[in-house]
Every structure is written in structure tokens, then in C-alpha cells.
Amino acid sequence: MSLSPQELSRYSRQLLIDGWNQEKLRQSKILICGIGGLGGATATYLAAAGVGEIRLIDYDTIDLSNLNRQILYSTDDIGKSKIQVADQRLMALNPEVKIVTRACRIDDDNISDLISGCDLVIDGLDNHSSRLTLNRAAYETRIPYLYAAVDGWLGQVSLFAPPQTGCLACLMPDLVNSQSPIPVIGAMAGLIGSIQANEALKYLMGIGSSLLNQLLIYHGHTQQTELLSLTPNPLCKICAT
Fold first, then answer.
1. Which residues are bridge partners to 212 per DSSP?
2. Rounded Cα–Cα distance for residues 87 and 15 (Å)
3. Which residue, 13, 129, 158, 217, is the most exposed by fewest CB within 10 angstroms?
4. What is the CATH architecture assignment of 20-229?
């Protein structure tokens, strides 16, 4: 497989990076669950980078309250399906990429089918219950799960790939009591979504160091970061053997 003249021009700046493998990106398939503040930023940069197939899942419509952080949408899109608008915007950004959309909530009955054949599952969700559903399916299908979350000035990112690592349930096994609605700063969602996209690119191409067995915590109000080492929980109900 070789790149066309148009692809060579489109990706010319990233092709200058040592170890960059555009052909490998073009062959990759990913799933992004949730196309809001996190997922929208992640999807935008992965589409721009030329990931071959991007599957998008979201069931919601665009609301005025979304627009402080959800960069794929505008005021004129209020009331429209997020999935339909995201599809149009990402295809306009890079028609070389295949966008596959499903307007639905994830649950135990559909998630295995939704992630089948993917190289990476990306979390753009805003509730822990759905995250645990996604985490279980990723573990059962042995598809790495790229987790991210934002709450106010706090952001987190990690990459789970059992049995090489533990899973999200090792870290947060139960439902988390959080403020509703969750406070979100648009710049924080964009920043953590960009980190998530960067982590996805490294994993898909097999370059650089990853967040496997590590949790990145970013404190936006102080510009400080923490990198915590993670170990599998031997009592985890999902991935312990």
C-alpha cells in the first residue's frame, strides 16, 4: 500500500516525524464512544491525522449548553443529531477517512458488536456506568481501551490493555458519585481530548512511550501533572484471573 500524491501533500508535516507510519494509520480502525467535548476533540485530530476508519457512537442532540466545549458543533446545529453533524464535519475535514456512525446508547447487548474488528476503543463518555460497560467489552474482546475524563480543572488519561495491564475496574470498580451536571471547561476538554488523540496515534503506529500501566493526571488550575503507576487489582471482578 502506498500513499497517493494527495495524501503525501495532506500529511506532509507529520510524515517528517521519525517513525511515523501513515500506511499503518490508514489501515487502523477505532471506535470513539461519545462525541462531545472529549470525543469531538479526539475525533477531529484523529480524522485530520488520517486514521483509516473511525466509528462514532452517540445518541444525543446538540444543545446550547454543549457549545462551550464541543468544537464540532455551532449555534446553527442546535437540535440536530450529534452523530450526523460530526459525520459531515469530519468528512469535510478529511474525505480520505471512513466515518461510520451509530446513533445509540451503548449497553451490554450491543457493545460487543459495535467494537468488533477495532484496533482501539476510545472513551469520550461522561458517565462511569457506560465506561464500565465499555471497559468490560474491551477486556472480553482484548481490544485496548483508551480512557479519559474531565471534571472542572482536573483531567485524566490512561491506556488499559489486559493482560498486559489491569483494567478501568481495577482503578474504579464501582459507580462514582459526582456532581451532576459535571462542570467542564472547554479548554480542558480540548486539552485532554488532544492528549487522548496523541496517545491513540502512538499506540496505533507503535511509536513512543505509552500510558500503559500509568494514569496521567493534569491539574489545569496549576498547570501541574502527575504520572501514577498502576498495577492490576488481583480481586478485580473484570480482569483478575
1. 159
2. 26
3. 13
4. 3-Layer(aba) Sandwich (3.40)
